[in-house]
Amino acid sequence: MPRRSRIDAPGALHHIIVRGIERKTIFKDDADRDNFLERLQNILTDNNTSCFAWALIPNHFHLLLRTGRVPISTVMRRLLTGHAMYFNRKHNRGGGIYFKIDINPFFARKMFMRLN
């Protein structure tokens, strides 16, 4: 059965979780984290998307975003493609680095964010 359409309209809140393939590291050092956060800031500014919280863990990350003028999927595609290209080039590797991407309406994850 296909998944239901994602709720995404200007102003919608999303809790986003992205995990590395085989739980492998997607942030090996501070330079990787700094590059990711700078890329995130630029993309959010360009697309008028708000970020209310973020957490970078070595093998995954969480974001709490409010959709701006473009769909959240477009924002995430730009962010993840750019970070994967940077990471692969820097660490002399190829292929994908992400295994699982969950984009959930915020109200479904509200309690999770409070508890963690």
Number of helices: 3
How many runs of DSSP E, i.e. beta strands?
4
Mean pLDDT: 85
Question: Major beta sheet, specifics?
Answer: 4 strands, antiparallel
Estimate the global geometry from the Cα principal axes.
Answer: globular
- Pick out the low-confidence regions: none
Structural class: alpha+beta
Q: Roughly how much helix do the residues carry, as a percent range?
A: 40-55%
- Beta-strand residue percentage: 25-35%
What integer value in Å does the Rg equal?
Answer: 14 Å
Strand order of the largest sheet: 2-3-1-4
Cα distance spanning the termini:
32 Å
How do the SSEs run, as a string of H and E?
Answer: EHEEHEH
What does this structure look like?
The protein has helices at 30-47, 72-90, 106-115, and strands at residues 13-20, 50-57, 60-66, 98-105. With 116 residues, the protein is an alpha+beta fold. It has a 4-stranded antiparallel beta sheet. Helix 1 (30-47) packs antiparallel against helix 2. The chain starts with 12 loop residues before the first strand and ends with a helix.
List the helices and strands and how they pair.
Elements: E1 13-20, H1 30-47, E2 50-57, E3 60-66, H2 72-90, E4 98-105, H3 106-115
Antiparallel strand pairs: 1-3, 1-4, 2-3
Quick structural gist:
The chain contains three helices and four strands, in the order βαββαβα. The protein is of the alpha+beta class. The model has no long low-confidence stretch (mean pLDDT 85).
Characteristic terms for this protein:
116 residues; alpha+beta; 3 helices; 27% strand
